[in-house]
Design brief:
207 residues, alpha/beta, Rossmann fold, 2 domains, 11 helices, globular
């Protein structure tokens, strides 16, 4: 069995406490009720959020289509004031980043992911950041895992993947990546689960 050399992290629901983000309620809170039907259509029918997360729209284009006038201010406000860095991540990273290669694998709008990692001072920990908005495919699509392995130059069995979604973990496992669920949402999952970065540290030490 190959030795684990690489830890691959999901962002939302692992590094950030909010598993799905808060952007949809954030949007409704910034517009009058008379705009709700339009906003609902843009999210559910036009699927603007998905298009932005797949790299079909930039952050500025996405927010502008939703009706935000100053798109940069709202991107920063949302990230800085409505998303929460798990307090355990940086101590964990300080403990393990020299022993393991850290990789980010996130479904996100390109500009948002870049701003999140910069704002929280996380860039120094990651050798690679694979973001759906940059590569134009997203978990649980098998292609994004294959692309990740290709970019980092590692065998699947050398990688441990921490995510909060069962389907994302199952696809990774099919490729031979070692999966661990960060059990933020209490999803049904038969494999290894952790609830905190302290618990994750204990699991990793046993690998």
């Amino acid at each position: 069995m190959s030795k684990i050399t690489t830890l691959i992290f999901d962002m939302y629901g692992v590094i950030l406490e909010e598993s799905k983000g808060n952007f949809i309620p954030y949007t409704y809170n910034h517009f009058d009720e008379s705009e709700y039907e339009r906003i609902t259509r843009q999210f559910r029918v036009e699927k603007l959020f998905g298009k932005a997360g797949n790299g079909e729209l930039s952050s500025g284009e996405f927010l502008s289509l939703l009706g935000f006038a100053d798109t940069e201010i709202h991107m920063r406000d949302y990230i800085e004031n409505h998303l929460t860095l798990d307090a355990g991540f940086i101590p964990f990273a300080e403990q393990f980043a020299e022993q393991y290669e850290f990789v980010l694998l996130s479904n996100d709008v390109s500009e948002w992911s870049a701003y999140i990692t910069k704002f929280h001072g996380l860039d120094k920990y990651f050798s690679h950041k694979i973001v759906s908005g940059d590569v134009k495919c997203r978990k649980p699509d098998r292609k994004i895992y294959e692309l990740t392995l290709e970019r980092i130059g590692k065998k699947p069995e050398e990688c441990l993947f921490i995510d909060n979604t069962a389907q994302n973990l199952l696809v990774a496992q099919e490729l031979g990546i070692v999966p661990i669920m960060f059990d933020r949402d209490k999803e049904e999952y038969a494999g290894t689960k952790v609830n905190t970065f302290e618990e994750l540290a204990k699991v990793i030490k046993d690998k």
